[in-house]
Automatic annotation (TrEMBL):
Residues 28-141 form the SHSP domain. Belongs to the small heat shock protein (HSP20) family. InterPro entries: A-crystallin/Hsp20_dom, HSP20-like_chaperone. This is Heat-shock protein Hsp20. It comes from the Bacteria. It holds the Pfam family HSP20.
């Protein structure tokens, strides 16, 4: 009997018992997210450092920002990988990752740079114009 068929049957039974989304809660533990990301926050800025080794063409990666969500799409492909894998700690493959940001960011003030396998994404806090305290200038009223 095929052990992979047994495993597939077992997973279907678990999906039926716990619900189809049961495995999504364990996905990060079983398969780590790629690309890896470090995020740093100051009062008005966020710096995201994304690990994308081997990126030869910057158009191979897409970065989207929507209010308080950062989305990264692309793939990590280490072309130098030949032979039988003995140890593999550098994760590779296609990625589509959405990261919740600690606060909403401005769409007009985003920058991304790439150096030595790292993408640096700089984001700036969105401050709603309607909630700002606006100073009102007093104009002289002329006598009629």
């Amino acid at each position: 009997m095929d052990p992979f068929k047994q495993m597939s049957d077992w997973k279907k039974n678990m999906d039926h018992f716990f619900g189809e989304n049961f495995w999504k809660d364990f996905e990060g533990m079983i398969k780590p997210n790629i690309p890896q990301i470090n995020m740093y926050q100051t009062e008005n800025e966020i710096l995201c450092i994304v690990n994308v080794p081997g990126l030869k063409d910057l158009n191979q990666m897409d970065i989207y920002v929507n209010y308080a969500t950062l989305e990264l799409k692309g793939s990590i492909d280490l072309e130098n990988a030949h032979g039988t894998v003995v140890k593999e700690e550098i994760l590779q493959g296609v990625f589509d990752r959405k990261i919740t940001l600690p606060f909403p960011v401005r769409a007009d003030k985003i920058s991304a740079t790439y150096k030595n396998g790292l993408v640096f994404i700089q984001l700036h806090r969105f401050i709603d114009e309607s909630s700002r305290r606006n100073k009102v200038e007093i104009q002289p009223l002329e006598d009629a």
